[in-house]
Amino acid sequence: MSISETYVRYRRTLSEEPLAIGVVLVALWMAWSLASGLATGGIRISSLASLVWDGLLRGLIIGLAGIGLSMTYSILNFANFAHGDYLTSGAFAGMATSYLVAGIGENSVGALLLVGAGGSVFGGALGIGVTTSPAAVVLGALVAGGLTIALALFIDRFVYKPIRDESGIALLITSIGVAFALRYLIQFVFGAGVRGTTASGSVPRVDVPAFDGTFRVTAHDVTLILVAAGLMLGVHLLLQRTKLGKAMRAMSDNEDLARITGIPTERVIRTTWIVGAGLTGVAGYMFVLWKGTLGFNDGWLLLLLVFAAVILGGIGSIYGAIGGGIVIGLTASVSVIWIPSEFGRAAAFMVMIVILLFKPEGIFSGRTTA
Amino acid sequence: MSVDDVRGRLDGLFERDVTLVLAVLGAIYLAYVLAGVAFGYGLRGQLNSIANLTFYIGAFGMLALALNLHWGYTGLFNIGIVGFMGIGVYVTALVSKPPVAEGGAAQVGGLGLPLVVGVVAGVAVAALFGLLVALPALRLRADYLAIVTVAFSEIVRFTMMSRTFQEATVPDTIDLTVAGVRLFSFDPAADTIGLGGGGGLILNYTDPLEALLRLLFLWEPYLGFVAFVERNFIPNNPKPVIDGVVYGIVLLVCVGLFYLLLSRTGKSPFGRVLKAIREDEDVANALGKDTDRFKLTAFVLGAALMGLGGILWYSGRGSITPPSFRPNITFFVWIALIIGGAGSNTGSFLGGAIFAGVLYEGPRYVKNLVEAAFELGDAPRNFGEAVAPLASLDPVPFLVYTLDSVSQLRLVIMGVVLIWLMHNRPEGLLGHRKETASSVDLSRPGDDGSSGNPAAADGGETR
Amino acid sequence: MSGTDDSVTDGSTPTEEPIEDDSMPAEDVPTEDGSPSAVTEESDGDADAPTDAETPDRTVHAPEDAGVSVDSTPLEVEGLRRTFGGIVAVDDVSFDVERGTLTGLIGPNGAGKSTTFNLITGMLEPDAGTVRFNGEEITGYQPHEIANRGLVRTFQIARELEEMTVLENMMLAPKGQAGESLWRSVLPVTRGDVRKQETDQLERVWEVLDFFEIDHLADEYAGNLSGGQRKLLELARALLTDPDVLLLDEPFAGVNPTLEKRLLEHIHELRDRGYTFLIVEHDMDLIMNNCERVIVMHQGRILKDGTPAEIKESEEVIEAYLGGEV
């Protein structure tokens, strides 16, 4: 019997080991090359710190955006490929509001609402920034969340609800249609140009010392961290402390069972969209506030990283989404130490693919929301 | 249902398919010709328009057929199509571009091998990457496979854009020396080689059509034909126009070959196992089918065909740049397949043709038609200027802006069409049809048709 | 690891000898379709050689096996164990199935019957234990490798290939189809052979369709069949793989009484032709009335292994499982 056991194990390892060995070797090489780089001064600690800081912030954006995706993925059971364009929608809605608040009176309302389409108004000139126009930013974030919620509910009502019982794949394909329609409607209305949105010059910044140099922290970095932390805490409380949160967790575990036990599934779905889309909209807005530019493709370009984060963290887990987001963000930023910078995102995708192959349930595991 | 009916339907299938295809193509072409008449096109204009249409029908037809092998037959959710296309055409370019010329300092060179070699290499490398993706990824569930494949296609695009692979200098001689003994020495023709980075590659090799016609010993007759046309129909350099039309026809022939290959693949025990995998992989496995092997074979074949599709699409284009290989094209092919009906090869081609003729090229023609019919003036620069006049009940600027944005709006239309199809007709045009996966007619052998009787319903008496 | 348990369960074997003898002659009767016994001998011969090379322990047990005559017990399960996240689903399950018998595997929900099936057929890998088929150890083999050796299963919820016709379902099953190679199916030179093989295979398919009296459904999509018809199709399809031993997972679930009777007749007829069956079933009476031997599982373990009469008399079975039902 022990022989057969060994045999079974042997077969298992045969199929899985080579890749695992490869991953370990790559990790060892990376550690060695980093250590030697730091030792010889080829890599400065301050630039490493700067990369880590950048990765962390990117990770928070991705994580924040990932919570919504993770929730709909686990509760509605499909990968929403339009999620990236929800982010874009939130970003445009929020920025339009910020422009309006910051620039009303001096510029035409139309140009402001179109976020300066065609170069009619410039965010920098309006002084958009958390310190220069706090009201505009706060209102922008709120509207971003609110309008994205409205959009998500509208789309759910007319697109997803009629085919609720179809397979996840049918819904996925449908969501690709939604993504197309949404993305190019945004382009139709707001134009194809990428615009600068913030008065990046006037955002306060601090150079934090780090051994052999400094790395830069801006007010928008801090804002992002505060907003992300606040929202995550909020979602945590919502899911842990309220009845609705329990219902949502029950549904993500087993929808049929939830239905039988009398959980109002449609209401739970609606709440899922509200919470998920709200977070997504705010994430989209924070994203453009932080990076200072806005284009119709932003959300779509972020989407794959968000997927990577959600898969990494385990679908349905909000902590997983955040953790996964940070891992992905760090990977995309810090990987430039080892590989050419063009491949930062590729490295993040590779991390996702490796996770899918070895631990498809995610590293933070567990099919439970929260 | 009597066996007679079955046989009759099987007989009718071929005819019906041909009629259906001809009817759809006829309708599309007719619409384009009529549009051309409305534009006041001469023969040259009409031929240009037809050539363009044929090109896209061919391209989308091929790709939809290849995707149908993955999704329609095997249930493999591949949304990395454009990655395989890109690999195919980039490898072709690397292999067949001439070594860098004196004047083209900014240009990257290639290996300078004949185009045929380049095409074969492109297809082979696309297949190889298919294998590379498939080996680990095929055990994943459909939505994960989707994400992995689209990530793969993006990695391919990042690689194309990358400065790292932009250009590399090829050493003058490549020696393999072991322990002081030179085993191998090779003097490559190429001096530089690379993917060209964000600037892409100029495809300065022999024109693909010329290469093909030379290969078939048809080049001289072809030039004679061009001269004939020039004398009698289109004076003043008709060659580009005729090239276009003939290349379109070449693509259609390729579609035919794809169809032949894939319908043979489908109508065979191999295709039957693929269908079984699509329906329920565990069952196929429990019946003794090594499903991994089948999935791998199907994925690699499909990837190779997508590579070939990419080559045929882009290799005659003069140049290729990374932005052409964004995931949008993947989704275009998906929409084409869903229009036609996943699972049906005829449907796939029809879907490709309808997508190309109506959704992809159609809106531009509508725009041109409207512009030809009305004097509309310049379009507003942005949405704001377009809607502002609506307040004073002047819809013209908005309409003009809409028309002017038709290249974006057609993507909105595609999205809406996709949603509509998934709501109302997820099986597409022909996806509902029984296309029996077998190389032979499966009706009762030795049955002359007369005994296909209702009594069979209560069974057993033939035993 | 469980010598005592084994000897307890093995104790019932002698009582079954007569039954086995009854069925043995039937096996020798040439069957009209593909004679399973012939297949067995073939696969035995094939299987033994590589097994010796692959698994050293094979030689250790060889004398024993030779003494018992490998053929008489095509399926031997020993010490099978499988846990799911700390919960022991199957624990130290050992039994063997005699050639040409109907063996029933019963037990309440969650007793581990389906898991046992999945372990035997390679859908799951056991944590411990061995499965031998015709003397060859097949533990941890892939499902298709196991199926190709002649150990074929059906599923609890009939899993038809819904968007394939009944004929396609049937044509899928036969082993060794040349056309399953892509190139042979596509290349003009070899496609003729593929077509010829398919034509030959088609005759057999229609015979089996006739045998199960579902020939009138041949062109239907499998998804349009009733529950009972699906069960028939699934059995018919499994039969076309030229199996040696068939594992049927609740073949009568959701089948109306008329169809159930027919299905039973078919199974008995096939048994008489030499096929061996292991059947998981809920319906106690059905198993008791039709099987020569019954294995009772409870909480992942084998509670009792014996003739229906012995099972009915067994105190532990009555206590643990039958309880009020009998």
From TrEMBL, chain A:
Q: Which UniProt keywords apply?
A: Amino-acid transport, Cell inner membrane, Cell membrane, Membrane, Transmembrane, Transmembrane helix, Transport
TM segment ranges: 20-43, 55-74, 136-155, 167-186, 222-239, 268-288, 300-322, 334-358
UniProt subcellular location: Cell membrane
Query: So which domain of life are we looking at?
Result: Archaea
Q: Which PANTHER family match?
A: BRANCHED-CHAIN AMINO ACID TRANSPORT SYSTEM PERMEASE PROTEIN LIVH, HIGH-AFFINITY BRANCHED-CHAIN AMINO ACID TRANSPORT SYSTEM PERMEASE PROTEIN LIVH
Family (UniProt)? Belongs to the binding-protein-dependent transport system permease family. LivHM subfamily.
Q: State what protein this is by name.
A: Branched-chain amino acid ABC transporter permease
What organism does this protein naturally occur in?
Halorubrum rubrum
TrEMBL record, chain B:
Q: Where is this region: Disordered?
A: 435-463
Q: Which InterPro entries match?
A: ABC_transp_permease, LivM-like
Q: What is this protein called?
A: Branched-chain amino acid ABC transporter permease
Q: Which PANTHER family match?
A: HIGH-AFFINITY BRANCHED-CHAIN AMINO ACID TRANSPORT PROTEIN BRAE, HIGH-AFFINITY BRANCHED-CHAIN AMINO ACID TRANSPORT SYSTEM PERMEASE
Its ancestry begins with: Archaea, Methanobacteriati, Methanobacteriota, Stenosarchaea group, Halobacteria
Looking at the UniProt entry, the stretches that span the membrane are 20-43, 49-69, 76-95, 115-135, 142-160, 241-262, 296-316, 328-360
GO cellular component entries: plasma membrane
Under CDD domains, the record lists: TM_PBP1_LivM_like
Q: Which UniProt keywords apply?
A: Cell membrane, Membrane, Transmembrane, Transmembrane helix
Places the protein is found: Cell membrane
Species of the source: Halorubrum rubrum
Q: Name one Pfam family in it.
A: BPD_transp_2
TrEMBL record, chain C:
Organism of this sequence: Halorubrum rubrum
Q: Name one Pfam family in it.
A: BCA_ABC_TP_C
Q: Which residue range or ranges hold the ABC transporter domain? A: 75-324
Q: What is this protein called?
A: Probable branched-chain amino acid transport ATP-binding protein LivG
Q: Where is the composition biased (Polar residues)?
A: 1-15
Alphabetized InterPro entries for the sequence: AAA+_ATPase (IPR003593), ABC_AA/LPS_Transport (IPR051120), ABC_transporter-like_ATP-bd (IPR003439), ABC_transporter-like_CS (IPR017871), BCA_ABC_TP_C (IPR032823), P-loop_NTPase (IPR027417)
According to its UniProt entry, what is the function of this protein?
A: Probable component of a branched-chain amino-acid transport system.
Chain intervals with Acidic residues compositional bias: 17-31, 41-51
Query: Do you know which SMART domains this protein is assigned to?
Result: AAA
Where are the compositionally biased (Basic and acidic residues) regions?
Answer: 55-64
Q: Which keywords accompany this UniProt record?
A: Amino-acid transport, ATP-binding, Nucleotide-binding, Transport
Q: Which domain of life is it from?
A: Archaea
On whether ATP-binding is a keyword of this UniProt record, the answer is: yes
Q: Which GO terms describe its biological process?
A: amino acid transport
Q: Does the keyword Mitochondrion apply?
A: no
The record's family statement is:
Belongs to the ABC transporter superfamily.
GO MF annotation list:
ATP binding
Q: Where is this region: Disordered?
A: 1-74
